[in-house]
């Protein structure tokens, strides 16, 4: 029997609760192995992949535990083989860093090998052939029906000429920064069916990417044009407008005045060795960016106001793999995974929910919303399936989130579809609240990571055992829309 024990360890953690129950019926050895897995799943949904274990509590019905493949980070939908089964006895667990490395390698490989966003989740709804992840605002009468990248890019008003036409071919274009060609040299991005070359498309909110791994080129050490040179790098605060990290890695609302008084000096220190013209440009652009956002409404709301995912969540920046600061830089927050103790708890009406295991301070990072990154077409197909299954006897909660990052022109948005229904982390248990809930969803961009991520931060101080919630978006009033049981005063179903 010993020779089978290893095989149990390899295979059983991948099975769903139903399949495990069947296996347990076959013999007493398997029944014991299954019992161990069940115990482990109940004691820690995160299976050691996060810093904090995540216990599961159910005092309301007979449902044992929720089943999904645990992944602390977003991953392309195609990477089925790399999903992490959870519930093994622990000896063969991957650790957090290993898991992170695999997720990131996979995302990068997918971007390099598979053209464009095919697996990463986005396509232009107007010029569908490009798969760029850029959507035109269909309410905007001025948005032309562009039929190629050039037209698409010009339409959002963010086009500049590429300096090195050799690097462009039919399937390659650049995501540049607003700070000039110097920073875009290594920033290659694969697009699909791109007919026009010689253009770079950028937005002020898209940061530099480097898929070339050209280690002898020092120009990659930029986050939005700012060189990142030390562990006290100000990137996480300087960039991104009103919302940024403070010294305790908590999210703060920054006023223009605070930015200029407090951070100007630090910025000068960190940029002092760099080309003065770069420094000048990045500051200039930074202030322009802030000025521009002052005029727009939702970006400057205080933390404790409700934000709606569909409005486009607020954007923050953090240091990343392209920065020279160390991995424990205080402006690398989201990339370390779940930051506070949480408990998965069963509710009578809403299914599973996520609760604070300890008090959480306003502005503290809670977790990333992780899941599979899927294309728009795939997200529509899946949503249809979830609606059908959900309307049948097996009422299942889907966890497909659509993120929209509005581009500065206001005429286009970047759409990212994250499906945490079968692959995800603890964020997949967070329920909706009509009043905005106690979590603030923010788009987080870090240097060197192509995909924007959805980070969830405490909107206010949260008490121990309080349920964590945020506003998913405006409500679907269709035949498939489930009743809301959030219980808030502003709930439409109350
Ligand atoms: C991201 S999942 C949240 C976890 C889910 N409760 C579960 O058991 O897996 C989203 C699903 O939870 C359910 N849900 C979330 N918020 C709800 C609410 N306020 N009232 C009722 N159901 C809710 C819906 O079925 C929704 O599709």
Low-confidence stretches: 112-232, 237-241, 270-299
Ends distance:
57 Å
Structural class: alpha/beta
The coarse silhouette is: globular
- Ligand names: S-adenosylmethionine
Question: How many DSSP-defined strands?
Answer: 24
How large is the count of helical segments?
Answer: 9
Approximate helicity band = 10-25%
Strand content: 15-25%
Calculate Rg over CA atoms: 23 Å
Largest sheet, strands/sense/barrel: 5 strands, mixed
The overall pLDDT average reads 64
Characterization of the model:
The chain is an alpha/beta fold and 494 residues long. The protein contains nine helices and 24 strands. It has helices at residues 2-11, 17-24, 28-43, 96-113, 149-155, 235-238, 256-271, 276-295, 376-391, and strands spanning 56-57, 69-70, 75-76, 134-136, 159-161, 172-175, 188-190, 199-201, 222-223, 226-227, 243-245, 251-253, 315-318, 342-347, 351-356, 365-368, 372-374, 400-406, 412-419, 423-424, 431-432, 439-446, 453-458, 469-470. The strands form eight sheets. Strands 3, 4, 17, 18 and 19 form a five-stranded mixed beta sheet that branches. Helix 2 (17-24) runs antiparallel to helix 3. The protein is globular. The termini are far apart. Residues 112-232, 237-241 and 270-299 have low confidence and may be disordered. Residues 66, 350-353, 397-399, 428-429, 431-432, 482, 484-486 line the site of S-adenosylmethionine (SAM).
């Amino acid at each position: 029997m010993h020779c089978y024990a290893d095989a149990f360890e390899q295979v059983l953690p991948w099975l769903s609760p139903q399949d495990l129950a069947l296996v347990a019926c076959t013999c007493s050895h398997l029944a014991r192995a299954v019992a161990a897995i069940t115990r482990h799943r109940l004691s820690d949904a995160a299976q050691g992949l996060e810093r904090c274990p995540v216990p599961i509590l159910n005092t309301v019905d007979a449902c044992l535990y929720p089943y999904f493949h645990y992944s602390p980070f977003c991953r392309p939908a195609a990477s089925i083989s790399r999903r992490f089964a959870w519930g093994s006895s622990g000896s063969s667990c991957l650790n957090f860093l290993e898991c992170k490395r695999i997720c990131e390698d996979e995302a990068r490989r997918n971007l390099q090998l598979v053209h464009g966003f095919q697996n990463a989740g986005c396509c232009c709804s107007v010029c569908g052939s490009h798969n760029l992840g850029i959507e035109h605002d269909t309410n905007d009468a001025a948005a032309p029906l562009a039929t190629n990248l050039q037209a698409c890019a010009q339409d959002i008003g963010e086009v500049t000429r590429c300096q090195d036409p050799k690097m462009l071919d039919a399937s390659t274009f650049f995501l540049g920064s607003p700070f000039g060609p110097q920073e875009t040299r290594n920033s290659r991005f694969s697009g699909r069916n791109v007919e026009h070359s010689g253009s770079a498309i950028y937005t002020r909110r898209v940061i530099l990417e480097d898929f070339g791994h050209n280690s002898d080129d020092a120009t990659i050490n930029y986050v939005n044009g700012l060189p990142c040179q030390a562990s006290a790098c100000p990137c996480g605060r300087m960039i991104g407008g009103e919302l940024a990290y403070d010294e305790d890695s908590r999210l703060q609302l920054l006023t223009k005045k605070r930015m200029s008084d407090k951070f100007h000096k630090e910025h000068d220190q960190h940029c002092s060795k760099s080309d003065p013209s770069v420094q000048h440009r990045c500051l200039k652009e930074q202030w322009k960016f802030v000025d521009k956002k002052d005029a727009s409404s939702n970006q400057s709301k205080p933390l404790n106001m409700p934000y709606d995912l569909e409005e486009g969540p607020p954007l923050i920046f953090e240091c990343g793999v392209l920065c020279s600061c160390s991995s424990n830089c205080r402006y690398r927050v989201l990339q370390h995974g779940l930051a506070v103790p949480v408990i998965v708890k069963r509710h009578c009406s809403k299914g599973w929910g996520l609760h604070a295991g300890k008090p959480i301070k306003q502005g503290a990072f809670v977790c990333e919303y992780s899941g599979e990154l899927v294309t728009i077409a795939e997200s529509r197909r899946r949503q249809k399936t979830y609606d059908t299954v959900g309307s049948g006897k097996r009422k299942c909660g889907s966890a497909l989130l659509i993120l929209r990052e509005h581009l500065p022109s206001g005429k286009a948005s970047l759409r990212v579809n994250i499906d945490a229904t079968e692959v995800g982390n603890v964020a997949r248990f967070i329920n909706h609240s009509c009043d905005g809930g106690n979590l603030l969803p923010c788009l987080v961009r870090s240097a060197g990571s192509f995909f924007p991520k959805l980070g969830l931060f405490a909107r206010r101080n949260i008490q121990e055992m309080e349920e964590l919630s945020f506003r998913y978006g405006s409500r679907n009033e269709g035949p498939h829309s489930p009743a809301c049981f959030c219980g808030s005063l502003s709930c439409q179903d109350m």
